[in-house]
């Protein structure tokens, strides 16, 4: 059996992008390790969720542990950086912000975990962090460098299939589920994910969608019951989240795509 280390920027990122492959790996007997760079201190808070005196970081820490349990994670680690907030905000350069951290220093912290776990596989984000968030971009930089330091043999960049997103939006409009112009703009789509022609790995996680959605629900401070993530009908959720896409570093793009992170 192998060890998968999956590296993310904030609590809740793990279940949205990699929840399916994490649960699948655990079910197959692999060891799954979750590393989160920040405490998510600057996330927007769902109303009436925090207990009296509870900070958002405290709540998100507990939520992460519960989501990790649902996804079969054997070890959860936080690197201890502060959430940098959205692009262009003053928190991007605040003391302790992950986006402002020295890449080499942060990579050494992550590499220590990779070495300790003798990681066979690590996931990071694509070069623009999926959608440009400063902490997500930093996950790419730090994760790629840490994998190099630790000599991890299989490195995958978690991403979104940009062309599939366009197809899903078009299908939703055609089915009357979304009005023309209600979805993301073409400029928004162009700034997200990776073109299909550049992808290498397509993982069908539909057998694990119940766990993936339950892990999302565990992050109640960020994902409300009436949110897009939880309000979708089962077939809509499967269409949106039933496939997880990656770029396997060093592998020529497909198709034919790899179908898991451990062989192929």
Describe the protein.
The protein has 264 residues and is α/β, with parallel strands linked by helices. The chain has one domain (3-160, 195-248): Rossmann fold (3-Layer(aba) Sandwich). The chain contains nine helices and seven strands; from the N terminus they run βαβαβαβαβααβαααβ. It has helices at 13-27, 56-70, 103-117, 134-150, 162-174, 186-190, 209-218, 228-231, 234-241; strands at 3-8, 31-38, 75-81, 121-125, 154-159, 201-204, 243-248. The protein has a seven-stranded mixed β-sheet with strand order 3-2-1-4-5-7-6, sandwiched between helices. Helix 1 crosses helix 7 (209-218). The mean pLDDT is 93.
Concise account of the structure shown:
With 264 residues, the protein is an alpha/beta fold. It has helices at residues 13-27, 56-70, 103-117, 134-150, 162-174, 186-190, 209-218, 228-231, 234-241, and strands at 3-8, 31-38, 75-81, 121-125, 154-159, 201-204, 243-248. The chain contains nine helices and seven strands.
